[in-house]
């Protein structure tokens, strides 16, 4: 066994051990460091392979990557974490696609390579390109550079996508059959790029958490395929870990929304927050004040906090923790209800609350907390919209009908912290806001929570 193989085994062990650490906030930071150390070992092992190439170019690439990546990661706000994940994931897919192109050129169109090398390389090129360009569109939607609403070609959307896929596959088949014209691999990359763009554009903001997971899985699969073509064990193992974990997460997220993955890919619903709802006739809302909200919660036996993207935007997690500490000092039991798709990426709320040092045992997943709402005196909803909408249970005509939600409406009273009456990512009004037991506290979430906290101190 060579030194390179030994180092690869060490790297794989660190990957797996680091991944195990990501199962909880207490060990997540350590898990990240361990996995990063594993990647460092894998890079060193790869550089030790004989004939690796021009060291100056390799060092230049490492320096440029570090100069761009480290400051970007350090400066990114927690609200922009989904965008960063989408962008960094897409870069991985794009790198794989470029490596496949280079391999095509260096091997004269795979003229002297085994058939599996050509097939794996072309698969990596197609999937990596789809992932790169799809991730750029996801980034644009999350960053609000592009509209969050679905953008598509109507009934022609799926035929166009199938035509692009067929064209990319035709280019790949021609290359495997012996054609060596470089225009074929360029055509494959261009067609798959267009496919990535046109697959993600029609997907609305409500489905974005699933899209991020799916693209992450595709990047992993493309890396594993490229590792097979290059006979690089590190790429195969790391790619399969990413692909498998991304696939599992995608499936879990789709189930949490009660939507199939093909339905999401075929065109999602929602658009990143709609216009203000009409409030007239029987559809009126009841307002409350910070003082009244503080009194309600101070004399409650149990309070459940329901965080959403509005909490992330306002960076209100630390204020929420301070408010909860005051309530607990008065003997009030405080828990946090976490919906799997709250926010803009899987685990978004968990990360924010962990940043504020909220005890992990107070964070309750949807299945665990839903039975508690009927025994809860006050549920305080901070910027969560679609995941608390009772229409998902009661209105068959609603686009979110059938999606599992947090049973906030079963609480004795509900306080909703929100800037206004705009809709959520699904683009539908929330029936919870018009419930007689619901009171709206309008304003910036952080400021509102801070006001409630001050009122609690004065009681």
From TrEMBL:
From the record, give the transmembrane residue ranges.
6-24, 31-49, 55-73, 85-102, 114-139, 160-177, 183-203, 210-229, 235-254
Location(s) in or outside the cell: Cell inner membrane
Q: How does it sit in the membrane?
A: Multi-pass membrane protein
Q: Which residues form a coiled coil?
A: none
Please list the residue ranges annotated as the NADP transhydrogenase beta-like domain.
5-454
Pfam (any one): PNTB
Keyword 4Fe-4S in the entry? The reply is no
Q: What is this protein called?
A: NAD(P) transhydrogenase subunit beta
Source organism (scientific name) = Actinokineospora fastidiosa
Q: Which gene encodes it?
A: pntB
